[in-house]
Amino acid sequence: MAILSDIEIAQKTPLKPITEIAEKAGIDPDYLELYGRYKAKLDNRTIMNSDRPNGKLVLVTAITPTPAGEGKTTTTIGLADGLRKIGKNSVVALREPSLGPVFGIKGGAAGGGYAQVVPMEDINLHFTGDFHAIGAANNLLAAMLDNHIYQGNALNIDPRRITWKRCVDMNDRQLRFITDGLGGKANGTPREDGYDITVASEIMAVFCLAGDIDDLKERLSKIVVGYTYDDKPVTAGQLKAVGAMAALLKDAIKPNLVQTLEGTPAIVHGGPFANIAHGCNSVIATKTALKLGDYAITEAGFGADLGAEKFLDIKCRMAGLAPDAVVVVATIRALKMHGGLPKTELGSENLEALEKGLPNLMRHVSNIRNVYGLPAVVAVNRFPTDTDAEVELVIKKCAELGVKAVLSDVWAKGGEGGTELAEEVVRLCEQEKPDFRFSYELDLPIEKKIEAVVKRVYGGDGVTFLPAASKEIARLTALGFDKCPVCIAKTQYSFSDDPAKLGAPTGFTVTVKSVKISAGAGFVVALTGDILTMPGLPKVPAAEKIDVDSNGVISGLF
């Protein structure tokens, strides 16, 4: 029998009208804004302000990513379905996919197999237009900034020190560094410029961390777009751009309601990358899910050193959230890659490579338990080639840390394949007591906060700050930004800033090459290694395989 692709599975599964999903979640029809039959936006203000007690918050994270795949989003969705299978009221809260990876190397990001959120084609493409609104708000600010300079520059902005970039939600390396404003005086002021991918825009971070429209406007007003000739920061508020930007975002800020293949309510909203931003869905989505479900299942991007660290140290700190349990997703295939086995040999049993790769999982689990004080379970996303001996080795090593490892088969079986994981998550939430704490305190200097993450979470020896980074840290400290949390941008493929260092490397230092303030988001960004805020397409982009037929049916999306 032929194995169906993700999109074929999704297209063969009949969907329930979104009004039925809303009813299942206890949402009054008056709070729905329908986008066709299967998508809706929520008037979440009434839901978030209801007197219903919050449910349990469960974070799903993963080991360091490899080309072998981990299945974090798939596990998140399957866990939510599994909780429903055992009689628990669950709601899943996810990020929206970026078009960059969809057309680039990764493909869709709505789960996989029989653990998907649907309609997956819509979610992976334009969805309800949130990313377009975020890009428009970002680029409106850029246009107003350059127009201000053109119209006389009353704020005395130094064109050489503009920090605000335009954005587009596509992998387009050609736009990383550009020169614009050419063609004479009528066409603007010539200057060096560049584009970020939309998910790396500070507007995305502001959007995802704002608690409501008023908080959104306050954060937008604080965005620093550049500096004056006399070294003073210039903000979006000074450019009088805030009202118009908020008007573009007024509908986007409402969370989106969709469903899993099994009809579990799913809130999909916001989507920053975890390697170049804070990597979590919106605070509004998470808090709405907590009001709607007894269990709110959410995920954070890439490995636990990126998404989970930022979820805990940035999002939870700002939003007053505290997880009740954490799921760390791993595959035996990926762990064998961390043990030095090439991708072509992952289908054969190799306990030696698995043993060498297991420290990567152990460090992530130890961080969750010992650095952040949270109960954890390991979800082993099983592949057909995994042998019993390999599975037993993972279970044994996790037991030595006092953590249970549970087999997850949600890709093939949906919620039914996630019931054992669901049972353990319920046990952790009901029987274990979190002692949640952050990896650093805000009163530390910027350098010390970065150093704390590198030493306590990454397992490194320390940090090297290049002169430009040190100079900017001194400037930001003088401006009063030293009490902000830090958002470290680094490769997702290693605990270190070197993607070639697999497993659980030691004896390394992380190099911070530059630092910038995201004042609206409320954090300091530290860029390490060769990290880029505008990715490029691979040699064979996923876009080459995507098509649509005469009936409007999409193929090749994933």
User: Beta-strand level of the residues, as a percent range?
Assistant: 15-25%
Low-confidence stretches: none
Helix count, DSSP H or I runs of 4 or more residues: 19
Mean pLDDT: 94
Radius of gyration: 23 Å
Describe this structure in words.
- By secondary structure, the chain is α/β, with parallel strands linked by helices.
- It is built from 19 helices and 25 strands.
- The strands form six sheets. Strands 1, 2, 3, 4, 5, 6, 14, 15, 16, 17, 18 and 19 form a twelve-stranded mixed beta sheet that branches.
- α7 crosses α8 (202-209), α9 crosses α10 and α13 (332-338) crosses α14 (351-371).
- It is globular.
In short:
The chain is an alpha/beta fold.
What attributes does this structure have?
558 residues; alpha/beta; twelve-stranded mixed sheet
What is this structure's SSE topology?
Layout: H1 6-12, H2 18-24, E1 32-34, E2 40-42, H3 44-48, E3 56-62, H4 72-85, E4 90-94, H5 99-103, E5 111-112, E6 115-118, H6 120-124, H7 130-150, E7 157-162, E8 166-168, E9 178-180, E10 191-193, E11 195-197, H8 202-209, H9 213-222, E12 224-228, E13 233-235, H10 242-249, E14 256-260, E15 265-268, H11 283-292, E16 295-299, H12 304-319, E17 325-330, H13 332-338, H14 351-371, E18 376-381, H15 388-400, E19 405-408, H16 410-413, H17 419-431, H18 446-458, E20 462-465, H19 467-478, E21 486-489, E22 509-518, E23 523-528, E24 547-548, E25 554-555
Parallel strand pairs: 3-16, 3-17, 4-15, 4-16, 8-11, 17-18, 18-19, 20-22, 21-23
Antiparallel strand pairs: 1-2, 2-14, 5-6, 6-14, 7-12, 9-10, 12-13, 14-15, 22-23, 24-25
